[in-house]
């Protein structure tokens, strides 16, 4: 699994965000490095929501930050509407980057405790000198009353309300793409549902393009048009939510689905569970990075890294032995 | 603001204001000149004209102390300002820019710190003379390294916060980010430290003056006065007393100001902190029946906190029973009281400001009657607990082996060698590979999942009867969560123990629990066997929680049913049914009368609702609710049409709303 390849990318004129062979590495001391993201590619069409799902350490949040060039990736390309972000520096980057905005996981830490809510939302318009008239509209759109809420400070709000402020701040500059990094994982289920519904509503109203990152597959499926599964810095599988949950092909996707408690969900019992935990990203396995935990691994998986290939209508997988397919020497299960 | 800062702050501020005003207005005060010799008889004690007496040259002591404040406060405030002016920008730069800038600034800083301060002071005074300005510069410059360190640390903390990333994404330039996002946050700790720095500078100036290295005579300074008065200690102690006392009070006052300001930045007080009180008080318990043959029983358990905002009813009349080999799950949103319920059962709720009520029986023995020592002996042996964050349960500087073996040696009296061997077996039984090697490792060398396995091994070490697991998998990945929950179930079966599982995750509860308690605002609102409770939900809150969770079987963009609002303020809960402001089926009665626990048709299934869902009672409203999840709607419709009303209250059939 966990392979590379760009076969799943669509023509450049059909997409607003195109990420190719993204590589992010951090020094790990002793001259070694953490291979956080190793050759990840994906694209997002205008008005689409791409979900990225994976467990901690799979590189999903690092990918989000690399898109923002915070910090810039070690290699690879990030194109927003055809503009290569990785080639931009300084002032040019500052001007282009505003078209990407982000909503973070921790609602408390995302807001400056010393500033008023109106100032927080109005910061973007203040920097650029445009859009100040949108501040009240955005506060209203996210369900806050500008008259009472705007003069208060973040600590006077609950986590869900802080997340609403974050969303308003991200939308007020009318960005091309909004990246949501685990926006609901710190919230109670009732508030989580409120925020998910809000994102769907705003997406309709402002024709937003979203990249929605989360570890909860059910949450991702609820909001996404397509879902990208990541493992240890690599892409495993890309498909619509229906195809991914109904016909998961990658052994890791299957394991992920099998681990989700099925209490009352009416899902078929899990076929095979994986044991153990992901290996260290400092010394990732050769070939397919999932092979050390994969029930279907063969010597081929250690020797050769699988690349993304098509196994159905808009269903792509990076695996030598995808479930239900006999190609490449894998047995049909 | 006044109440939060406390009276000590205002006293300190008052004293400093007084000293400052006196120093500033010294020339206007009806005092003899500080350098006027023989203003009175030398070394005379307090008397008319000279309320604090005169010194060896007959100069007025009070006048000299007042004029001396100019030097002390001037040096104190001036040195700090100078230190901040140089140190703070360097610290912000090092903390925000990092890398090379940080390395250079901190390198120079470390060298400056290593430079002997007294030698520096001596050298400057020797070459440049001991003027007020020179003393101020010496003390200011000596303070710079500390300021750089302090400001750099605070800047680093805040520049890692997401709001700084967000500002940069919005297009704010570094200068704007620094001024708007970082400086306001750094300034409060800097302000508090500045007051402490002023106290330090005043003491330092005093010490220099005592050594004769500060401003020279005849200009009075507090330290210089103490120095001059030293030979007169035996004949005229009052000469030393007043400057010492004033200096002491001033230093204390500056320290107090700084300390109180720092406390402000530490905690955000909500008015919900328990009011200080010596011991937990007991609330009367309602009469109850002590069940036989059950392992664990809670009867009318209550834990209330007395706070400035009123009584917080964190746990309010909770009862349940649990048998061996069963798992009881407690679910609810944050603030529902589920974690406090576990702490109350285990006797771990905070002592101060707490009102407790009800009883907990383990095999018929009332745990609430045990003293601390008896309870401690029970914890870890018959009752064991696993919490959300394994890192807080493990000591970071002790090996896994030492920590797992400890309860075996303490509670079971095993020898070290035997305990180590048993610890290895325990680690193996919770699925830790290479247990012998793991024994020698430290917690930080293990992954989150492995750490949680270790805490489970520790909890199981003495063969408990009940394992309490408070959100044991919330911090873990879903594949690891599955492994840990599987492990807990297997251990429960092997050891024939009972498990109490606290979770906010309904799908975890539905899969792993036998019985479920749903809590809302500190009360049980629904309770029953897991299958019944999830399939034949009666309480609208449970229904709403279930409907709010996205399901894998739903199509993409499936609208979730929204539960508006959020859990109530426990210091001021709504009248009647606490859920009524958020309930789509609420009617007048719900806000007026609190529903008791009714018995549903299935055995052991209880709910607290006047108009339960899935029965005829709520049918009128049900049909009008939009966005209802399909399955629930179908279920409710069938039941509303055909189900016989067999509900029965356990607290008096006549109190039912119908």
TrEMBL record, chain A:
<dbReference type="GO" id="GO:0005524">
    <property type="term" value="F:ATP binding"/>
</dbReference>
<dbReference type="InterPro" id="IPR003439">
    <property type="entry name" value="ABC_transporter-like_ATP-bd"/>
</dbReference>
<keyword id="KW-0547">Nucleotide-binding</keyword>
<keyword id="KW-0813">Transport</keyword>
<dbReference type="GO" id="GO:0055085">
    <property type="term" value="P:transmembrane transport"/>
</dbReference>
<dbReference type="InterPro" id="IPR017871">
    <property type="entry name" value="ABC_transporter-like_CS"/>
</dbReference>
<dbReference type="Pfam" id="PF08352">
    <property type="entry name" value="oligo_HPY"/>
</dbReference>
<dbReference type="GO" id="GO:0016887">
    <property type="term" value="F:ATP hydrolysis activity"/>
</dbReference>
<dbReference type="InterPro" id="IPR013563">
    <property type="entry name" value="Oligopep_ABC_C"/>
</dbReference>
<dbReference type="InterPro" id="IPR003593">
    <property type="entry name" value="AAA+_ATPase"/>
</dbReference>
<protein>
    <submittedName>
        <fullName>Peptide/nickel transport system ATP-binding protein</fullName>
    </submittedName>
</protein>
<comment type="similarity">
    <text>Belongs to the ABC transporter superfamily.</text>
</comment>
<keyword id="KW-0067">ATP-binding</keyword>
<dbReference type="InterPro" id="IPR050319">
    <property type="entry name" value="ABC_transp_ATP-bind"/>
</dbReference>
<dbReference type="GO" id="GO:0015833">
    <property type="term" value="P:peptide transport"/>
</dbReference>
<feature type="domain" description="ABC transporter">
    <location>
        <begin position="17"/>
        <end position="257"/>
    </location>
</feature>
<dbReference type="InterPro" id="IPR027417">
    <property type="entry name" value="P-loop_NTPase"/>
</dbReference>
<dbReference type="Pfam" id="PF00005">
    <property type="entry name" value="ABC_tran"/>
</dbReference>
From TrEMBL, chain B:
<dbReference type="Pfam" id="PF00005">
    <property type="entry name" value="ABC_tran"/>
</dbReference>
<dbReference type="GO" id="GO:0005886">
    <property type="term" value="C:plasma membrane"/>
</dbReference>
<keyword id="KW-0813">Transport</keyword>
<keyword id="KW-1133">Transmembrane helix</keyword>
<feature type="domain" description="ABC transmembrane type-1">
    <location>
        <begin position="69"/>
        <end position="258"/>
    </location>
</feature>
<feature type="transmembrane region" description="Helical">
    <location>
        <begin position="103"/>
        <end position="126"/>
    </location>
</feature>
<comment type="similarity">
    <text>Belongs to the ABC transporter superfamily.</text>
</comment>
<keyword id="KW-1003">Cell membrane</keyword>
<keyword id="KW-0547">Nucleotide-binding</keyword>
<dbReference type="Pfam" id="PF08352">
    <property type="entry name" value="oligo_HPY"/>
</dbReference>
<dbReference type="Pfam" id="PF00528">
    <property type="entry name" value="BPD_transp_1"/>
</dbReference>
<dbReference type="InterPro" id="IPR035906">
    <property type="entry name" value="MetI-like_sf"/>
</dbReference>
<feature type="domain" description="ABC transporter">
    <location>
        <begin position="296"/>
        <end position="546"/>
    </location>
</feature>
<comment type="similarity">
    <text>Belongs to the binding-protein-dependent transport system permease family.</text>
</comment>
<dbReference type="InterPro" id="IPR000515">
    <property type="entry name" value="MetI-like"/>
</dbReference>
<feature type="transmembrane region" description="Helical">
    <location>
        <begin position="132"/>
        <end position="151"/>
    </location>
</feature>
<feature type="transmembrane region" description="Helical">
    <location>
        <begin position="190"/>
        <end position="215"/>
    </location>
</feature>
<keyword id="KW-0067">ATP-binding</keyword>
<feature type="transmembrane region" description="Helical">
    <location>
        <begin position="235"/>
        <end position="258"/>
    </location>
</feature>
<dbReference type="InterPro" id="IPR027417">
    <property type="entry name" value="P-loop_NTPase"/>
</dbReference>
<dbReference type="InterPro" id="IPR017871">
    <property type="entry name" value="ABC_transporter-like_CS"/>
</dbReference>
<protein>
    <submittedName>
        <fullName>Peptide/nickel transport system permease protein</fullName>
    </submittedName>
</protein>
């Amino acid at each position: 699994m966990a392979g590379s390849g760009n076969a799943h990318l669509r023509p450049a004129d059909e997409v607003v965000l195109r990420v190719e062979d993204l590589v992010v590495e951090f020094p790990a001391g002793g001259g070694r490095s953490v291979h956080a993201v190793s050759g990840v590619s994906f694209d997002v069409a205008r008005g689409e929501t791409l979900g990225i799902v994976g467990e901690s350490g799979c590189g999903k949040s690092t990918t989000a930050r690399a898109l923002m060039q915070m910090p810039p990736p070690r290699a690879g390309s990030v194109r927003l509407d055809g503009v290569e972000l990785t080639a931009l520096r300084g002032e040019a980057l500052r001007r282009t980057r505003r078209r990407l905005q982000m909503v973070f996981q921790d609602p408390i830490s995302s807001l400056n405790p010393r500033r008023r809510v109106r100032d927080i939302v109005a910061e973007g318009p203040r920097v650029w000198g445009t859009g100040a008239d949108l501040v009240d509209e955005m506060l209203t759109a996210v369900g806050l009353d500008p008259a009472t809420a705007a003069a208060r400070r973040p600590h006077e709000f609950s986590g869900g309300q802080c997340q609403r402020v974050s969303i308003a701040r991200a939308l007020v500059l009318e960005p091309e793409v909004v990246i949501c990094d685990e926006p609901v994982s710190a919230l109670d289920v009732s508030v989580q549902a409120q925020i998910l519904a809000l994102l769907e509503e705003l997406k309709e109203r402002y024709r937003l393009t979203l990249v929605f990152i989360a570890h909860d597959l059910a949450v991702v499926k609820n909001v996404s048009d397509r879902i990208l599964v990541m493992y240890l810095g690599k892409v495993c599988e890309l498909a619509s939510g229906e195809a991914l949950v109904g016909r998961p092909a990658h052994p890791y996707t299957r394991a992920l689905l099998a681990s989700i408690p099925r209490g009352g969900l009416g899902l078929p019992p899990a076929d095979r569970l994986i044991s153990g935990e992901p290996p260290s990203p400092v010394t990732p396995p050769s070939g397919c990075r999932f092979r050390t935990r994969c029930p279907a691994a063969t010597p081929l998986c250690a020797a050769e890294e699988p690349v993304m290939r098509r196994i159905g209508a808009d269903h792509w997988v990076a695996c030598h032995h995808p479930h239900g397919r006999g190609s490449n020497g894998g047995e049909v299960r | 603001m006044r109440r939060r800062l406390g009276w000590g702050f205002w006293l300190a501020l008052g004293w400093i204001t007084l000293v400052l005003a006196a120093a500033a207005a010294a020339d206007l005060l009806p005092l003899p000149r500080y350098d006027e010799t023989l203003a009175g008889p030398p070394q005379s004690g307090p008397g008319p004209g000279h309320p604090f007496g005169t010194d060896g040259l007959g100069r007025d002591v009070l006048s000299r102390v007042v004029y001396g404040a100019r030097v002390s406060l001037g040096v104190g405030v001036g040195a700090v300002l100078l230190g901040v002016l140089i140190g703070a920008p360097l610290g912000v730069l090092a903390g925000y820019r990092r890398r090379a800038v940080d390395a250079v600034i901190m390198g120079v800083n470390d060298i400056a710190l290593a430079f002997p301060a007294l030698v520096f002071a001596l050298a400057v005074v020797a070459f440049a003379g001991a003027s007020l300005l020179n003393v101020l510069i010496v003390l200011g410059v000596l303070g710079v390294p500390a300021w750089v360190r302090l400001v750099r640390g605070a800047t680093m903390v805040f520049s890692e916060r997401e709001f700084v990333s967000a500002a940069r994404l919005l297009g704010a330039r570094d200068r704007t980010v620094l001024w708007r996002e970082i400086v306001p946050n750094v300034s409060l700790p800097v302000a508090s430290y500045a007051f402490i720095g002023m106290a330090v500078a005043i003491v330092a100036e005093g010490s220099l003056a005592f050594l004769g290295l500060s401003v020279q005579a005849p200009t009075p300074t507090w330290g210089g006065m103490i120095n001059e008065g030293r030979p007169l200690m035996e004949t005229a102690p009052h000469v030393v007393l007043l400057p010492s006392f004033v200096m002491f009070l001033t230093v204390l006052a500056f320290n107090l100001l700084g300390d109180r300001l720092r406390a402000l930045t530490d905690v955000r007080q909500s008015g919900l902190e328990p009011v200080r009180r010596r011991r937990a008080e007991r609330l009367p318990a309602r009469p109850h029946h002590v069940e036989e043959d059950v392992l664990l029983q809670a009867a009318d358990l209550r834990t209330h906190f007395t706070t400035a905002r009123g009584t917080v009813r964190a746990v309010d009349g909770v009862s349940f029973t649990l048998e061996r080999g069963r798992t009881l799950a407690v679910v609810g949103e944050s603030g529902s009281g589920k974690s406090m319920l576990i702490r109350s059962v285990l006797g771990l709720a905070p002592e101060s400001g707490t009102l407790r009520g009800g009883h907990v029986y383990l095999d018929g023995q009332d745990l609430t009657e045990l003293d601390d020592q008896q309870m401690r002996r029970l914890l870890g042996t018959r009752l064991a607990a696993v919490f959300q964050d394994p890192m807080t349960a493990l000591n970071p500087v002790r090996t896994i082996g030492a920590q797992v073996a400890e309860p075996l040696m303490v509670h079971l009296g095993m020898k070290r060698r035997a305990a180590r061997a048993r610890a290895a077996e325990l680690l193996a039984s919770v699925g830790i590979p290479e247990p012998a090697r793991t024994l020698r490792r430290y917690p930080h060398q293990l992954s989150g999942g492995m750490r949680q396995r270790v805490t489970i091994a520790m909890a199981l070490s003495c063969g408990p009867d009940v394992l309490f697991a408070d959100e044991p998998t919330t911090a873990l990945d879903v594949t690891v969560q599955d492994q840990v929950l599987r492990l807990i179930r297997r251990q429960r079966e092997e050891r024939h123990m009972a498990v109490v599982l606290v979770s906010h995750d309904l799908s975890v509860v539905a899969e792993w629990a036998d019985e479920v308690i749903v809590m809302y605002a500190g009360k049980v609102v629904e309770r029953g066997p897991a299958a019944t409770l999830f399939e034949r939900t009666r309480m609208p809150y449970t229904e709403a929680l279930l409907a709010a969770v996205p399901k894998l079987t739903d199509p993409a963009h499936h609208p979730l049913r929204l539960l508006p609002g959020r859990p109530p303020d426990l210091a001021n809960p709504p009248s009647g049914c606490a859920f009524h402001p958020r309930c789509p089926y609420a009617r007048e009665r719900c806000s007026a009368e609190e529903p008791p626990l009714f018995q549903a048709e299935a055995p052991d299934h209880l709910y607290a609702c006047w108009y339960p869902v899935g029965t005829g009672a709520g049918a009128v409203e049900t049909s009008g609710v939009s966005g209802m999840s399909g399955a629930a709607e179908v279920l409710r419709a069938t039941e509303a049409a055909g189900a016989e009303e067999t509900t029965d209250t356990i607290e008096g059939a006549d109190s039912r709303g119908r």
